[in-house]
Amino acid sequence: MVRISMIFLLILAVQACQSQSEVENKEGRTEKILSKVPDSLAKILTLDYVMGKYEPAEQEDFIEIARVHADRAGMYLRKDTYAAFIDMYEAAKKEGIYLQIRSATRNFDYQKRIWENKWTGKTKVENGENLAQTTPDAKERALKILRFSSMPSTSRHHWGTDIDFNAFNNEYFATGEGKKIYDWLAANAVDYGFCQPYTAKGAARPNGYNEEKWHWSYLPIAEHLTTFAKEHLRDSLIQGFQGAQTAEQIGVVEKYVLGINELCLSPQ
């Protein structure tokens, strides 16, 4: 009887250790991620940052983009991303390729304006469609916007790592000067840390936004943010704008935030 009791107590002790180990493993995942993150990112890496709930101009690790590199003033990038871009810009220029930044960091409020203008029909989508008139079903309307525009709180442009170059349509990059730019980026951007997150959809990338040949992401920082989003961002947290209720119906985090070119995923 004593022997049976000792065995029972031993089993309970093992189970307790396993439960504690599971808790420590769950807690340790975030620590493991953060341990590999550059100091400049680790000190501000929060859900608010990943969801774009900050003002780039007020962040010490961000810098305003020089007018020579952009189509307008007032845009910002992380300093590390911008430094890598400048190296790439200068290398491209030597080969007669001119990269122009059309869009960079967009915080939650900026993305909310883009989203709600399309949601309400103020901004027409493809083929001049007014979604407020043509698409009364909320989920269907959200999916139409998600072809090319992110829900607020889910855009990679929140991160200060992502840049849109030269034009906002794939046709531009299919011929002439646009093709030269895209071919150069496809061949050389990786050498400067940049990756195209939204490649053509297919078996390798069945979900997410349509192809965007203009959108490039600075992977040395963005890979950590992608991993953090995978660990912490949930559809239920996507709130505060018209149509936000569709995030959970669609599975926005899994299908869109994480539905990227596998070469741009964190190697965790």
In words, what does this structure look like?
The chain is of the alpha+beta class and 268 residues long. The chain has 11 helices and 6 strands. The chain has a 4-stranded antiparallel β-sheet with strand order 3-4-6-5. α1 runs antiparallel to α9 (219-232). The longest helix has 34 residues, at 2-35. The chain is globular. Residues 1-35 have low confidence and may be disordered.
Keywords summarizing the entry:
single chain, about 270 residues, alpha+beta, four-stranded antiparallel β-sheet, about 45% helix, globular, disordered N terminus
Beta-sheet strand percentage? Answer: 5-15%
Topology order in helix (H) and strand (E) letters: HHHEEHEHHHEHEEHHH
Task: Work out the number of β strands.
Answer: 6
Q: Largest beta sheet: what is the strand line-up?
A: 3-4-6-5
Query: What class, by secondary structure content?
Result: alpha+beta
Shape label: globular
Number of helices: 11
Q: What is the helix content?
A: 40-55%
Using the CA coordinates, give the radius of gyration. Answer: 22 Å
Low-confidence stretches: 1-35
Largest sheet: 4 strands, antiparallel
- Note the gap between the termini: 49 Å
Mean pLDDT: 89
Please give the structural blueprint:
Blueprint: H1 2-35, H2 39-42, H3 47-50, E1 62-64, E2 76-78, H4 79-94, E3 101-103, H5 108-120, H6 131-134, H7 138-145, E4 162-165, H8 176-188, E5 194-195, E6 215-218, H9 219-232, H10 246-250, H11 252-257
Antiparallel strand pairs: 1-2, 3-4, 4-6, 5-6
Helix pairs in contact: 1-9
